[in-house]
Design goal:
Radius of gyration: 24 Å
Shape: elongated
Number of helices: 12
Strand order of the largest sheet: 1-2-7-8-9-10-11
Oligomer: single chain
Structural class: alpha/beta
Strand content: 15-25%
Number of strands: 24
Length: 393
């Protein structure tokens, strides 16, 4: 439990030992499930709960904050890492009313079987008076679910943003954290979770421009006191024109031939003035690669042919890239085959969501010859030229 401002408490839970989120996203620094209590002169509100595995921590922190009564439980987002402790909290505080968006009302019924008179729908821009503190609810759909909203505390100028501006970091002190480590964690979180919703984030950021915000209190990771910095980062990450002179080259190799092509491409790109992020798919952290995809102008996938198609490791990465929808402008494929090809065609079918120009692939039979490696050099030169034609990089 931590008092972050007068009569405003963090009562959530750290989870430093959690290794994966959604059974997919690596969590090298664990995570936190932040929950906040706002004590007004007349009424008290709890903003979001915690993952059900950490319910007892939440209950203990509520007791430490001397919360004997809850008038409201604000549910910004129905996903269970934020709402999963609701049944227990409703039992502990029978007088409490849930406040949520219209779509969230249905989600809570579906996910937790919570419905009825204890759920009250608030509309966009509705307010609740707690006495000397006022909460305003701002609908922010698709950041990152359809029912998501954020809550603004007017008098203290705090935005309780739920997943918006979050970071997967376990933090004992939400107010004090290494700035650069936090910035990187926020970017990883954006890349893995928010990047597919860039267009919706743009409109939702615009909604927040009229609000004076001194502090952003997300539901994962530390609190942001440098509000301008995190808002500026988000604006840059969602901007289509902000790609950099950067190529992501990710490969997987069975017998070394595709690795030879990837190594040569990295070397040649760098000689042509292109910055390269280089990944062996079999060993990579998808979070780090996703971060690079936020900025990269070009993505090159290297794959051998396996059973008439692309390698499953490469296929998994292409599936992920297609889902994340980065603003990458150019894509190409390199790889080696033994008795059949078709990897480039298969790869193109897997990235239909990406609005990219496909640069002619380099697909070779067996071990690359010197001519094959020269074709890799030509690919690198072509990528470098494409980057130069983007006037801003």
């Amino acid at each position: 439990m931590q008092e972050i401002k007068n009569n405003i408490f963090s009562v959530g839970a750290n989870d430093p030992d959690r290794k994966f989120f959604d059974t997919l996203i690596p969590l090298p620094f664990g995570t936190s499930y932040n929950s906040y209590v706002v004590k007004g002169s007349l009424k008290t509100a709890l903003i979001d709960t915690v993952d059900p595995e950490k319910s007892q921590v939440l209950l203990d922190n509520l007791a430490a904050a001397r919360v004997d009564r809850l008038d409201y439980i604000v549910v910004n987002h129905a996903e269970q890492d934020h709402s999963g402790s609701l049944p227990l909290i409703l039992e502990k505080y029978p007088e409490a009313t849930i406040l949520c968006s219209d779509k969230c009302q249905g989600a809570l019924a579906d996910l937790l079987h919570i419905s009825g008179s204890r759920v009250q729908v608030v509309k966009d821009k509705d307010t609740i008076n707690l006495g000397d503190k006022t909460l305003e609810f701002i609908y922010t759909p698709w950041v990152h679910w359809a029912e998501t909203m954020v809550t603004y505390l007017k008098e203290d100028k705090i935005l309780f943003s739920c997943d918006f501006f979050g970071a997967h970091l376990a933090a004992d002190d939400l107010l004090v954290f290494d700035k650069y480590r936090l910035e990187h964690a926020v970017k990883i979180y954006f890349a893995e979770i928010m990047m597919p919703f860039r267009l919706m984030i743009k409109s939702n950021l615009a909604k927040l421009e009229s609000y004076p915000i001194d502090m952003i209190a997300p539901s994962h990771g530390p609190i942001h006191s440098d509000v301008g910095a995190v808002l500026g980062s988000y604006r840059n990450w969602i901007a289509d024109e902000s790609v950099k002179n950067l190529a992501v080259v990710a490969y997987i190799s069975m017998h070394g031939s595709t690795k030879m092509l990837a190594d040569r491409l990295k070397e040649s790109l760098e000689k042509n003035g292109v910055e390269v992020r280089f990944y062996d798919i079999s060993k990579m952290d998808i979070g780090e690669l996703a971060v690079d995809m936020v900025d990269a102008a070009t993505f090159v996938i290297g794959t051998p042919c396996l059973l008439g198609g692309i390698h499953p490791g490469a296929a998994n990465l292409l599936y992920l890239a297609n889902a994340l929808r980065p603003k990458t402008r150019f894509v190409s494929v390199i790889g080696s085959y033994g008795w059949s090809g078709g990897m480039a065609e298969a790869a193109a079918l897997m990235i239909k969501n990406l609005k990219v120009e496909v640069i002619s692939p380099v697909i070779v039979k067996g071990m690359p010859s010197e001519d094959d490696l020269k074709n890799i050099d030509k690919l690198a030169q072509g990528i470098a030229q494409k980057h130069k034609e983007l006037n801003h990089i």
